[in-house]
UniProtKB/TrEMBL annotation:
Keywords: Cytoplasm, Hydrolase, Protease, Serine protease. The keyword Hydrolase applies. This is Dipeptidylpeptidase IV N-terminal domain-containing protein. It is found in: Cytoplasm. Pfam families: Tricorn_2nd. GO terms for biological process: proteolysis. One of its GO terms (cellular component) is cytoplasm. InterPro entries: Tricorn_protease, WD40/YVTN_repeat-like_dom_sf. SUPFAM superfamilies: DPP6 N-terminal domain-like (SSF82171). GO terms for molecular function: serine-type peptidase activity. Belongs to the peptidase S41B family.
Length: 260
């Protein structure tokens, strides 16, 4: 809050990019609508001839038959082959990011700034109905989410490099990793949606693979902190975990006895 000013029992102040007005007696608060008339090009309606130039994300559905595309904050669902393109977002006042399919293929989940902060919301893939807000506590920039195979959980990180799991049914959020320790490579859900694998930096800055249990809330490091291990991925039956690791050790320290 910046530059508050009191007049006639009301306080006007700056909050983010808005001016807000607070009535002391009633406790009501509202955004002061400000409009500047202008004929600048930036305020004129513009037709976008090639929206794919502004594409920010593209994700396949579980069957590999459709794509959800996000361009200039709008969401579209398109078939992989020929067919009709559906606009899934109907609110022109909101900007969407990182939208993906849920496993049922009927629902989309992504980030929206409709509330003024980036919150997780759902949309209908066929473009009908209203979107549903899942979170409402945004105080920091959230980033791309990974949906579990059963469609129950969403793993995402934020600008603090914290890792979270969101329950898409209840909206409850669980902090999995914090303190900005960072991640190595991608995250991966086990086929039964009970484990999340991700990379996390150890005290010596080498990245280890960590498994987080949704059932118990416990985390366990499954690789050594003597080498970098990143980008975990589960096998189809969940019995094996695959990852990338740098294990070709070539010391740069010369022999104390010189060249031999």
């Amino acid at each position: 809050v910046r530059n508050p000013a009191l007049e006639g029992g009301r306080i006007v102040y700056e909050l983010a990019a808005d001016l807000r007005l607070y009535d002391i007696a009633s406790g009501d608060e509202q955004v002061v609508p400000i409009t500047l008339a202008s004929d600048f090009d930036q305020l004129r309606e513009k037709w976008v001839d090639d929206p794919m130039q502004y594409l920010s994300s593209a994700h396949l559905d579980a069957e590999g038959e459709r794509l959800v595309l996000t361009a200039r904050g709008r969401v579209f669902v398109a078939p992989v082959g020929a067919g009709r393109i559906v606009r899934a977002s109907n609110n022109d006042a909101a900007r969407y990011r990182d939208v993906v399919f849920l496993p049922n293929g009927e629902t989309l989940v992504g980030l929206s700034d409709e509330s003024g902060e980036m919150e997780w919301v759902t949309l209908q893939a066929n473009g009908t109905g209203e979107g549903r807000s899942i979170t409402g506590d945004g105080t920091i920039q959230r980033r791309s989410g990974l949906v579990s195979p059963d469609g129950r959980w969403l793993a995402y990180d934020d600008n603090n490099a914290d890792l979270w799991i969101l329950d898409l049914q209840s909206g409850a959020q669980t902090l999995v990793s914090e303190d900005g320790e960072g991640f190595g490579g991608s995250r991966s859900w086990s086929p039964d949606s009970r484990w999340l694998a991700f990379g996390k930096a150890a005290a010596n800055t080498f990245v280890q693979i960590v498994l987080y249990s949704v059932d118990s809330g416990a985390s366990v490091r499954v690789t050594s902190d003597r080498v970098n291990s990143t980008s975990p991925g589960w096998g189809p039956n969940g019995e094996f975990l695959y990852f990338l690791s740098v294990r070709n050790l070539q010391s740069l320290v010369g022999s104390p006895w010189g060249s031999r």
